[in-house]
Amino acid sequence: MISRVTNWLSHGLPNTLEQCARPAFRPFSSTSIAAKGPAHTPKKKRPRYRDPYANKHAEARRAANIARQAVLRKERAAALGDPIRGIPTPFVESFDTALPPEPEVSAADLDLSPEAVSQRSEASTSAEAGASTPTATLPRPLPSRPEPEPPLLNHFLTPAELDSSLSFSHALTAPIPSNSFDPSARARALSSHATTHSTAAEALTRILSLRNASSKALTRVNTQRCIATFGRHATDTFLRPQPLSAAQLDPDVHTLEKTPRAGRDTGSSEVQIAILTAKIRVLADHWEGAERNDKVNKRNLRLLLHRRQKLLKYMQRKEKGGDRWPHLVGMLGLSEATWKGQIAVEDPPKE
Questions:
Q1: With contact defined as beta carbons under 8 Å apart, do 161 and 212 qualify?
Q2: 3-class SS at 152?
Q3: Which residues are CB-contacts of 196 (< 8 A; sequence separation ≥ 6)?
C-alpha cells in the first residue's frame, strides 16, 4: 500500500499539475492564420469581347420593348375605362339635375320638307312591315323602355299634383259674384285675381323646381328615378326573362315557386347598383373639385366603389344570358374597370 502511494506521487502528480497549469482557452491573437501564409489573390477574368454593333442593337431592342409595354399598358387601361365614372351616358349625366334626359332629335327629324316627310313615312311603313315578319327569320333586338321617364318635382310632388292644386286654389280664391252689377269692378277683381294667381303659381313652380333643390333633395329624387327605371316591377314588362336552366327544364325535378313581389322593387341588384352610381358621381364631383384634401369623403368613395364592384360581379354571374345585364351596363355606362381588377382611388392632378 505504501509503495502504491509512493508510485502515484512520483509518477501521477507531475502530470496532474501540468494539466492544471494549462490555460482553459486559447489566447486571442489579432493575426489570423491565413495572414501568416503567402497572400492569395483570385485571378481576374478577362471580360468577354462583345461587338459594339451588337450592343447597340440589344439596347435598341430593350428600349423598344419598354416603350411598347408602356403603350400596351395605356391601351389596356383605356379599354377598361374609368373605374369611378365609367362611360358618360345621358341617364348618368342627368343625375346632376335629377331631370329626365331629353330625347335626341336628329337633323333629319327637324327637316320639314315634303321629301324628308315622305322618306320618314316610308321608313316607318317598312319598319311596321318588318315587325310583322316571323321571329324565326329575324333576330330579336334588345328591347328598350316603352314609355318615357315621368318627370318629378321637389318635396315629393309630381307635376300632376301641382296642376290639380293650382286649379283648386284658382277656383277657391276666385271673386264671388255680387248682386250689384258693376262691370268695371268685376273686371278689376278678375284681373287682380289672375295676377295674384299667376304670381303664386310662379313662386310654387320655382320652389318645387329641381334646379333650385339641394344636393340631398337631388339624391333622393335620383333614388326614386333609379327605382322606377331599374326596378323589376317595371323592367319585367319589357325585358326578356332569363333562360331556364337544365334543372328547371327537367320535369322530374321539383322547383319551388318564387314568392310574388309586393309593391315596388327597391332591393334588387340593379337598383342598388344604380343608386350607388348616383352617390358615387356626387362624391367624385365633390372630391375632384376644390375639396381634394377631404380624406373622409375619399374613404366613403372607395367604400361605395368596392360595394358596387361586388354587386356587379354577382349580377354578371347570375344574369348570364339575360337582358338585365346589358340593359344595366348600357344605361349606366359601366365599363369593365368598374368590376374587374383592383380599384384604386388616385388623387386628382393639381392645377
A1: no
A2: coil
A3: 173
Phi then psi for 318, rounded to 5 degrees? -85, -35
Helical pair 269-288 and 295-318, crossing angle rounded to 10 deg: 150
What does the buried/exposed string (b/e) look like for 172-183 if buried means 16 or more CB atoms within 10 Å of the residue's CB? eeeeeeeeeeee
pLDDT for residue 346: 80
Report the run of H or E that residue 118 belongs to, with start and end: helix 114-131
Query: Which residue in 331, 317, 163 sits closest to 235, CA to CA?
Result: 331
Total residue length of the chain: 351
Alpha helices in 240-292 (DSSP H): 246-249, 269-288
Give the rounded distance of the alpha carbon of 73 from its chain centre: 21
Give CA–CA dist 167/118, Å, rounded. Answer: 42
- Distance, C-alpha 20 to centroid of its chain: 86
Average confidence (pLDDT) over 149-157: 84
Give, in degrees to the nearest 5, the angle at Cα 15 between 11 and 18: 150
pTM over the 0.85 mark:
no
- DSSP secondary structure, 194-225, as one string: HHHHHHHHHHHHHHH-GGG--HHHHHHHHHHH
> Contacts for 240-244 with beta carbons within 8 Å, 24 or more apart?
240/140, 240/143, 240/322, 240/323, 241/322, 242/319, 242/321, 242/322, 242/324, 243/321, 243/322
Sign of the alpha-carbon dihedral angle for 341, 79, 81, 320: negative
Q: What is the structure's pLDDT at 134? A: 38
Of all residues in the chain, the percent with pLDDT exceeding 90 is: 36
Q: How many CA atoms lie within 13 A of 337 on its CB side?
A: 17
Asked whether 98 and 222 are in contact (CB, 8 A), the reply is yes
Pair 273, 313: CB distance under 8 Å: no
Confidence band of 307 (pLDDT split at 50, 70, 90)? very high
Side-chain half-sphere exposure of 259, counting CA atoms within 13 A: 3
Place of cell 358615387: 280
Check pLDDT > 70 for residue 324. Answer: yes
Average pLDDT (160-185) is: 86
Q: Which residues fall within 8 angstroms of residue 270, CB to CB, at 6 or more apart?
A: 230, 232, 235, 315, 324, 327, 328
